[in-house]
Amino acid sequence: MSDILFLFIFTFLILFSIPAWMYYRLSKLETAKRQAAEQEQLEAAKRKIEAAVKALVARHNTAKELLKRCREAGISSLDTEDDKSNVWTIAESMGVKSKEEAVALYKEGQNPSKEATEAVEKERAERRASWRKDEHDELKRSLADYPPNLIGRDKYTAWALALRTRVQKEIGGYEASSKVMSTYPSAHPTPQVSVTKEAMKGQLVGGAGLAAAKAIKAQNLNARSSAASADIAAGMSKLSFAYSRKAEDLEWLLRKINGYLGSINSKLIDTEHSDKYASMIEGHVSKAELTSGGNLALDIDFNITDEPEILGKEAFLDGVIDITAKLDGNTIGSRTYCRPLYNCPRYSASLNKDLNEIFLIGKVETGLENNLHIRRILMIVTANITDADVPNIVFEITPRTVWAVEGTRDGVLHDFSSI
Known about the structure:
Blueprint: H1 2-72, H2 81-92, H3 99-110, H4 114-145, H5 153-187, H6 195-265, E1 269-270, H7 274-278, E2 281-290, E3 296-304, E4 309-310, E5 313-327, E6 330-338, H8 347-352, E7 363-365, E8 372-379, E9 394-406, E10 412-415
Antiparallel strand pairs: 1-9, 2-3, 3-8, 4-5, 5-6, 5-9, 7-10
C-alpha cells in the first residue's frame, strides 16, 4: 500500500510541477515583454521631448538672429505695416516661409518665453560641459607627452629611447622572419616517391604492364612535387626579401634615432644652477580668452634678459614654468607648462604610432628664446567666470626649474637632415 501511495504522490507532484514551471516561465516572459514595452515607451517619450526642445531652441535662435539683423538694418519696431514688410524681407532671406511667421519670430526675439530661455540655457550648459571635458582631455594628453618631471636631458631623450626600443624589436622580428623564409625550402623539402619501389610493387601484383604504369605515375607525382617545391621556394624567397627590406627601412630610422641621441648626449646641459637661469627669464600673459568650455587660453611672451653660457660656451634656456590665475585675490586656475619639442614625435606617438608614419626630418627645436611668443596655452579654471571677468584676472608666471643647454640661442637641438 505504501508503494502505491508513494507512486501516487510522486505522479501528482510531477504532473503539478510541469504546469507550475510552465506558468512561471510564461510569467517571466510576459514580465520581460511588458518591461521592454515600457522601456520603449519611455525612450520614445524621451526622444519626443528632446525633439521638441531642439525645435524650441532652434526657433529661439532664429528669433534672436532675426532681431539682430533687423536692428543692424535700423528696424526697431513693428509699429507700421512698412516695418512689418521690412522684417519680412529680412526673414525671407533666412528661410522663413510667411510674413506672419516673420512678425511672430520678431516678437519672440524681443520677448522670449520662459520655456525657450530655460531650454537654451540647458543646451548651452550641456555643450559647455562637453567642451570642458574635451579641454581636460587635451591638457591631460599634453602633460603625458611632456611631463613636467622630465628635467634637462631626460626631456629630450625620453621619446627617442622609447621609439628606439620599438624599432629594435621590429627589426629583430623582421630579420628572424626573413631568415625563416629563406631557409624553409631546404629545411622542409617536398618528399619524393621512389620510382623503383613503385615499379617493383606493380611487378609483384600485376606484372610488367602494371610495373610500367606505377613507374610513370611515380615520375609524374615527383615532377608535380618538384614544381610545387619550386613555387614554394620562390614565394618564400619573395617573403624573405620583403621582410629584409622592411628591416633595412627601419635600420635607416634607427640610425636617425641613434644620431639624435648621440647629439643630445654629447651636449653640455646644466641643471645645477636653476636659480641663476630662472632670474634671466621674464614672462607675462599678453592675451587671455575664455574658451568654449569656460577655461582660459593664454598667450605668453618671454624675454631673456642675459646671454646664458655653460663653461664659456653659448647656450639657450629651457625649463618648466608655473602659471597662476587669480580673481579678486582668489586662485581660480593654475597650469604647469613646458615648451614642447618641435619636429619630433610626441612621447605617446613613440609608443603607439605606426612606424611607417613616423618621419624624422628638419630641425628639432625647443627652449625659451628671447622675444618668444607662445599662443593659446590652455589653463583649467575652477570657478565659473565670464568674458567680463577676464580683464580683472591677475596672472603670475614663476619659473619652477630652468636649465641651460649647449647650443645656439634659437633653441635648435638637432638637425635630422644632417644624417
